[in-house]
Amino acid sequence: MNIGIVCYPTFGGSGVVATELAKILAKKGHNLHILSYARPARLEDFDTRILYHEVSINSYPLFEYPPYALALASQMVNLIEYEQLDLMHVHYALPHATSAYLAKQIMAERGIHVPIVTTLHGTDITLVGKDPSYKHVVEFSIDKSDGVTAVSEYLKKETYENFDIKQNIEVIPNFIDLDRFQATDQTDLKLKLAPNGEKLVVHVSNFRKVKRVPAVIQVFAKTLEHGIAAKLVLVGDGPDRQVAEQQCRSLGICKHVHFMGKWEKVEEILSIADLFLIPSGSETFGLAALEAMSCSVPVVSSDIGGLPEVNIHGETGYACELDDLDCMAKYAVNILSDAELHAKLSENARKRAELFNQEEIVRKYEQFYEQVMTQSSVKSS
């Protein structure tokens, strides 16, 4: 197949999933055309079957904000026509699904029909999409897609509850590269981060408010109070970085905390982690938790959104109600102080992650593409 993929280039889940999907599809013999306003973070290696197309936006005095959605639609038209795309897969409803519909209509006027698949990832539904300014556009764009997927049952349910959607939504979860995300020997790194054999508690995020990094630090501080010799490793960067640093100073635990910043090979740190903390206030899937579990790391999480579909309470770790930091600290202490429990949770975490094997999930996408193309062909004939 000749497939167009539209995504955001940032480190967020939707951009990562879209890029990794493209890389796997390319290995399976498909040709991919990725559209974005910048090169996606995970698109670092050259592949003759993957072409990146930058959506350029010209500034005009008339526009206070450059019309990205229109520039994207125009680029889609060019790709559909000149690259002879079989299908366009857009990640994130706004504005990608809207731009795709416009491009589709333009091409229909020229007698060319290309089906549109829209994948819903999270805040396009749970946050941005609920804004009254966008709600009707989101509903229209989703319903005009030829196929719609969501990354979790939770997100599917949220979409139906908050929008008047007639489209059938197929749940295709996020996936994991089991070869990349597996525990490997990182003895030197372990010695640098925990020179006295301390337990390593890890958190990975973009440090946005919704990730609740201050809660991570509070839970860790409570863990230290129970006499656990541990270090906290914070991977990532973002708006709450400075808040987190100040909080460490206030609690007097700076010597126990490592701020690693953005670390592309996060699997190296996960390989030496003893526990992964993810107390998010909103999480439609929990890709960071899945990556940790794939490296055999038990997880303590909040029980919101799609996290309970990934982290199974009592089996791969534990889930607590949002803001119940004492609950999280209790489970953290139990895991870090009980070697037998830790071993059991670690083994179960890896087994659970194996259910999200990228080969199996990408095969589901291929089958969905074929289904959408067949149905779309019937409709247009």
Describe the fold and architecture:
This protein is of the alpha/beta class and 381 residues long. The protein is built from 15 helices and 13 strands. It has helices spanning 13-27, 68-82, 93-109, 123-126, 135-143, 153-162, 187-193, 213-225, 241-251, 266-270, 287-294, 307-310, 325-337, 339-354, 358-380, and strands at residues 2-6, 31-36, 50-54, 87-91, 116-120, 147-150, 169-171, 199-204, 230-235, 257-261, 275-278, 299-302, 317-320. The strands form two sheets. A seven-stranded parallel β-sheet has the order 3-2-1-4-5-6-7, sandwiched between helices. The protein has a six-stranded parallel β-sheet with strand order 10-9-8-11-12-13, sandwiched between helices. Strand 8, helix 8 and strand 9 (230-235) form a beta-alpha-beta unit. It is elongated.
Quick overview:
With 381 residues, this protein is of the alpha/beta class.
Residues in β-strands, percent: 15-25%
- Quaternary: single chain
Q: What would the CATH topology of the largest domain be?
A: Rossmann fold
The largest beta-sheet arranges its strands as 3-2-1-4-5-6-7
In CATH's first tier, which class of the largest domain applies? Alpha Beta
Q: Count of helices?
A: 15
In the CATH hierarchy, the architecture of the largest domain is 3-Layer(aba) Sandwich
Instruction: Provide the residue-averaged pLDDT.
Output: 93
The overall strand count is 13
- Main beta sheet, described? 7 strands, parallel
* Computed Rg: 22 Å
- Find the CATH superfamily of the largest domain: Glycogen Phosphorylase B
Helix content: 40-55%
- SS class: alpha/beta
Distance between the termini: 20 Å
